[in-house]
Write a structure and sequence with these properties.
Blueprint lengths: L1 H15 L63 H9 L7 H12 L5 H11 L5 E17 L7 E17 L9 H40 L5 H22 L10
Antiparallel strand pairs: 1-2
Helix pairs in contact: 2-5, 3-5, 4-5, 5-6
């Protein structure tokens, strides 16, 4: 009875103990790493998937030619006869040549001025250099004469002496070349430049005056401000020409 009574207790103890740890399972052959699968022929690039050539533009997609802009109507032809008639209506006044000559003469820069300077510089060497000298000498002396048995005599000796000297000197080498010619040549160049500027100024003023007169005759200004500006400019030009030439520039349009 005692033996049988202990058996259930031993079974209970043995059942209560944890089972021993089991050994880890080895990797199965099916779970080993498989080699990378090679690309199948079906996965290679197919000919249909290759880059297709660029499609040519269809005729309907070509750029249409740009439409030409509408051409403007050509301006009316210029009536040259009308311009000539306007010039003919100008009252006769000083010509351009007269204006230029008067301006050069008034400025003292005629075309022969520079050449005359060069000629005079060469001819001046033929003239002598004259020098004049005047000397005046005043002498005054006192003399005392004493003789035995005679009274003393005091004499005053005074005298004047005037001398005039004149000298003429020629430098004949200056007839061949004179340094004054270089100075005259430089002055002639400056004179020619000034003469050219005078001619350009009076010529521009002369033709600007004619242009304003013809424009006012053919196409009179519509606006009051423009008309006043044209009239003032005309009077300014006429004043400049009168001052540069000494000529009279009066009304130039026939009534």
């Amino acid at each position: 009875m005692t033996t049988l009574g202990c058996l259930p207790l031993a079974l209970a103890i043995s059942m209560a103990e944890p089972p021993p740890p089991s050994m880890p399972e080895l990797a199965r052959p099916a779970e080993l790493a498989r080699p990378a699968e090679l690309a199948r022929p079906a996965e290679l690039a197919r000919p249909a998937e290759l880059a297709q050539p660029a499609q040519l533009a269809q005729p309907a997609q070509l750029a249409q030619p740009a439409q030409p802009p509408p051409t403007a109507e050509p301006p009316p032809p210029i009536d040259l006869a009308q311009i000539d008639a306007a010039f003919a209506r100008l009252r006769p006044g000083p010509s351009l040549r007269a204006v230029q000559d008067a301006a050069l003469e008034r400025a003292g820069v005629g075309p022969q001025a520079g050449a005359s300077w060069l000629r005079r510089a060469r001819g001046a060497a033929a003239l002598p250099t004259i020098s004049v000298q005047y000397d005046l000498r005043l002498d005054q002396g006192w003399a005392l004469d004493r003789e035995v048995g005679e009274a003393d005599a005091l004499r005053n000796d005074a005298g004047n002496q005037s001398v005039i000297r004149t000298k003429a000197t020629w430098e004949l080498d200056r007839l061949i070349f004179s340094p004054d010619e270089l100075r005259a040549a430089r002055a002639a160049l400056d004179l020619a430049d000034f003469r050219e500027r005078v001619l350009v100024q009076v010529t521009q003023l002369f033709y600007e005056r004619q242009r304003l007169l013809v424009e006012r005759e053919i196409a009179p200004p519509v606006e009051l401000e423009t008309a006043i500006g044209t009239s003032v400019r005309l009077r300014e030009i006429e004043g400049l020409l009168a001052g540069l030439t000494g000529l009279d520039f009066g009304p130039t349009l026939t009534q």
